[in-house]
UniProtKB/TrEMBL annotation:
UniProt protein name: Acid phosphatase
SUPFAM superfamilies per the UniProt record, alphabetical: Phosphoglycerate mutase-like (SSF53254)
Protein's organism: Capronia coronata CBS 617.96
Transmembrane region(s): 437-464
Family the UniProt entry places it in: Belongs to the histidine acid phosphatase family.
Entry keyword set: Membrane, Transmembrane, Transmembrane helix
Entry keyword annotation includes Transmembrane helix: yes
Stretches for region Disordered: 410-431
A single MF term (Gene Ontology): phosphatase activity
Keyword GTP-binding tagged: no
InterPro entries named among the record's database cross-references: His_Pase_clade-2, His_PPase_superfam, Histidine_acid_phosphatase
Low complexity bias spans: 412-428
Amino acid sequence: MRYSYAPLLASLASTSLAAETVLGVYIFSRHGDRTAKSTPPANLTALGLEEVFTSGTYYRNRYIASDSSHHIHGMNTDMVKQSQITASAPSDTVLQNSAQGFLQGLYPPTGENVQGDTLRNGTVVQTPLNGIQFIPLQTVSTGANSENSAWLQGSTNCANAQISSNNYFASPEYLTMLNRTQDFYNGVSPMVNRTFTASQTSFKNAYTIFDLLNVASIHNSSDNFPHADLLTNETFFQLRTLADQHEWGLAYNESEPIRAVTGSIIASQVVQALNGTITGKGKNKFNIQFGAYAGMMSYFGLANLTSVNPDFYGVPDYTSSLVWELVTNATVGSSASEFPAVEDISVRFLFHNGTTSNISEPVEYPLFGTGQSPLPWTDFVNGMNKFSIGTQKDWCHACGNSTGVCSPEVLGESTPSTTSSSNSSSSGSGSGGISKAVAGVIGAMVTLAVIFGAELLVLLVGGYRLVSKKRLSRTAAMGPNGAGLSTAEAPKA
């Protein structure tokens, strides 16, 4: 995204020593620049592909290249070794294409100088496309079509999480902002009234209105952007601030952690993957998952990152990335028997807002309000386990789901389980944890009862997405009436 809001500039002095070795990493990344959510289907743009490729190239230079600054111990530098890397994305065009673009930056084509295959008849077959390298992409259903969904919580299939997010629309905070900002949105209406009706042009649709105008400000010519003069810097800032506040309210609530269920599942996946690096003595070293920003925001709240920097309340830009590094200061040998002991391993968390590059690198932050980074492995796991959801049964109970994979028969329960309260959470490090694939199965198979009634109808018609609130907003500017920004269609239910 070319438009950025107050980048996260806080720095944290590293406590690592010169001899530190990176044993493995887990990266969770947002997609690159795309078309607007209010005109589905959303598609990755050429700019978006460039962004994820640039980010992939940066992480290659950080972790993989022979002269990388934080080379992962034993990681192949030029030719990809499939057992060392795991890549995944939901069944979503924008996210899957972003993942593929990132992976091409991570392991670029090897060139024609690589030896080809010599057939029995003597024919030599070279790898096409200048030696392009293909990395398998695991497909999961959790978050399927999330970039075509205005309300990202709808892709979680977690009943209690959806109910919790719905509670936001009855909160004094939301109702106050809805009333206070109506004059501001009336002023914005001329730019969006071909997509949003007068009743839809309000704080109720704060994110999708911002998203439409953000895309237009990047891609639309003046002929296709009526009343572009109304989108002043002050108005754009206000649109983004209101979108941040709206989305944070949907993504996280301290008294109802189940609202952040996506962040809970991400936490479990990170622990399981890094634990696999340890138990496998470094066999799998690099994990990259692409997902929607809702999961990022949920994790920010759960991990108490907002106490470190208030900018974590904000919606992450395109291609933003969360990174967990598995590091050690112990001596690491070439054999599995020389792999460091658990007590000698720590985890460092880093975040970058927007496209990562050599001139804009990730920043280190302490997790869980500890003020310490990196964290010893045991402390890291204990901190993550306080809110992670790591088994199918725990997910079903926390979400209050009781059909499909959550039926008593499937869970091995003689009677239907009691619906957990909305603040349920459970450990993610135990056996039988939700892998990305299992989480996808849950998302695909669970059938929800009709619980939401009129509130859900309002959400779907209005068009919502999960994310943040960033800074407290102030109401602003009005503008003249006129023809609105031309788009393909109004938000779908």
